[in-house]
Amino acid sequence: MRLLKKNPRNWRVKSGQPLTEMDKKILSFQNRGCLVPTRDLIKTPEQIDGIRRAGTLNTAVLDHVAEHIHEGMSTLDIDKLVHEFTIQHGGIPAPLNYEGFPKSCCTSINEVVCHGIPDAEEILEAGDIINVDCTTILDGFYADASRMFIIGETTPERKKLVQVAKECLEVGAAACKPYTFVGDSAAAITKHAHQNGCTVVRDLCGHGVGNAFHEEPDMEHWGRKGTGMLLVPGMVFTIEPMINAGDWQVFVDSEDEWTVVTEDYSDSAQWEHTFLMTEDGLEILTY
Fold first, then answer.
1. Collapsing DSSP states into helix, strand and coil, what is residue 256?
2. How far apart are CA 66 and CA 87, in angstroms?
3. Among the four residues 99, 217, 233, 242, which has the most C-beta atoms within 10 Å?
4. Element (H, E) at 135
5. Which residues lie closer than 8 Å to 43 by C-beta, 6 or more apart?
6. Which residues of the chain are modeled with pLDDT < 50?
């Protein structure tokens, strides 16, 4: 998780060119000391088209998982589905070998919050809830999304957690309008989670994506309105709140140094999309 930049004055006007309406709006926030994006975070139309294509493939990968996931299969079987489908369709699974991560997707069951490593010995059982997180590279562009799957019949409490986590993504996205802040989305997510008796993981966040796996801004899911980076048209980022049934604290497994688990071993759920900020609000690129 990156730290937010200390210096908010980072919008640069193009030399010799008149100010655009976007320049004027961003400069007005910058002059008030707000954290604003750098110009390189505003994607070009060509980049957006590439990210959108990557998003289409990433969605197809998760659809493929949805068609085949079942009780009795291993999480390594899920990884094979993701890897083979992605390669067959001209993509590259971004997680594979990223900073040493050994597999093509993340599979996080029950109390595992995120970054679970697929394993042949980890078998899906009836009642499990599992997050499958995929990031796809296509022609050099990245798209990132995850879904929750319920294996067979599960408890009402787990069903509710999965639903609340999905709703948290939706309310967080709805709160993102042009020239609002990351904290506006975070506050909406926090409120909805707490109203439903859940908590929001604070140690992990969403992120900019598109030209690289992880870019700015840090898309926090717990926070206050008016904080964090200004969100403007042309930015591409994920929203991926991790919602716990118990307390919000987590720890990283000391054996693999990847798997994030709830401190109290309560269940956790997460949904994720890659979004494009437009003049009218967010467009989902991983539908």
1. coil
2. 18
3. 242
4. strand 129-138
5. 51, 210, 211, 234, 235, 236, 276
6. 1-9
